[in-house]
Amino acid sequence: MDPRWCSQFLPQNRECTDPRIERKVDRTPTPAGDGRGNSTSTMIIRNTGVRHGRRALAAPVVRTLLRPISMLPKSALTSATTATATADDVNTKDAELRDALSAAMSYKRKREEADQLKAELAKIPQNFNQFVHIQKHTKGLGSTVKSRYEAGVHLRDPPADATLEMLLAAQAHMGANTSLWNPANARYIYGVRDGIHIISLESTAAHLRRAARVVEEVAYGGGLVLFVGTREGQKQAVVKAAQLAEGCHLFQRWVPGTITNRDMILRAQSLRVVDMLDRDVEGADELLGELRPVKPDLVVCMNPMENYVLLDECGQASVPTIGVVDTDADPTWVTYQIPANDDSLRTTELIAAVLGRAGERGQKRRRADASQGICTWEESDGVRHYRIKKLDEQRKAMEEKMAREDGEVKEEVIHPGDLREQLGRQAIGEAAY
């Protein structure tokens, strides 16, 4: 719509509601009391109110309802502050009341606990007397539960053989970690559990019986058995086994060269020359300086991993060895393997006890045969030469005595069969000369 047209056709006393239309107003001052000036001012105020009212209505409702706190009257602010202070006082009094109530309840609870404890303490003498009365009249009833394992039980009463149950209780089946295993021990392994190899106890029992048979035969033949265990806790086991087999023991560090260089290392050690009944041979003191230090006829090693030098010397000197081989050890280091857990002291005690008992059986068999005149072992070359030399001296002395008695000197010829008979009687300790 054209504003000019609108202004021409609208009446003078009617207001145009279109904000785009500006009404043409005569700004010529009028004398006082003129009605035209008042109507013009009224129209201007009305237009201003319409414009601002539309803007206010177009704004969000929340903004139109907001009003600064400073616009409130002082009486309203004072009443609000008083109400807030009154609420804070009430909350403070409630908190103090709750604290006092909780303190009273806590004190009451502590008193009850103290009274209950005092009552229980007062019942102790009465309960103890009742316990003694019941124990006195019922101590012979029921069964006695014993411990399944006692430390050193195999050493106090060494078994003649090891069953699968005894090996299992001694944890002989626990091998080393699978990452440390030696493939040469695959034939002894039963399976894997929780990252460790499980040793077949049937193989352990079979190899242990074979090793016990070897120890028994060596002891029966008069051989020297050396038991070695250098780990902490193996001392009692090797000492007990050596006592049973009447051998030697070692529970400290092996001195390198004890076997291969025994003429220098063992030259200060004392020796004995005995007969087959373990009696000292008379007049053998002059022979001791000519004999070499003895070497073991069999070595039983409980921890081959720490005694490789010993096993190497035994191999150089052709000394058979028996060793407890775990899954991380090399079974070719020893002559007779016993696949078992070498980290368990229970296993060490059990194996040492069985081998010691086997050596004891061999010694008893040897003495039984010796008492019947059967010699189960052969003497060394040095002792044999010494005995032949003594027999020759005794023969010459006998010939000279017989010649003096007959008044003539003649030489007697001894048949070789008679000489062997004399050597045999001398070996069994018969005083024939």
UniProtKB/TrEMBL annotation:
Entries under Pfam families matching the protein: Ribosomal_S2
InterPro entries from the UniProt entry: Ribosomal_uS2, Ribosomal_uS2_bac/mit/plastid, Ribosomal_uS2_CS, Ribosomal_uS2_flav_dom_sf
UniProt GO cellular component terms: mitochondrial small ribosomal subunit
Biased composition range(s): Basic and acidic residues: 17-27
Transmembrane parts of this sequence: none
UniProtKB keywords: Ribonucleoprotein, Ribosomal protein
Record GO biological process: translation
GO molecular function, one term: structural constituent of ribosome
Region (Disordered): 17-42
Highest taxon of source: Eukaryota
Database matches in SUPFAM superfamilies: Ribosomal protein S2
Family, per entry: Belongs to the universal ribosomal protein uS2 family.
PANTHER family from the UniProt entry: 30S RIBOSOMAL PROTEIN S2 PROKARYOTIC AND ORGANELLAR, SMALL RIBOSOMAL SUBUNIT PROTEIN US2M
Protein name: Ribosomal protein S2, flavodoxin-like domain-containing protein
Organism placement in taxonomy: Eukaryota, Fungi, Dikarya, Ascomycota, Pezizomycotina
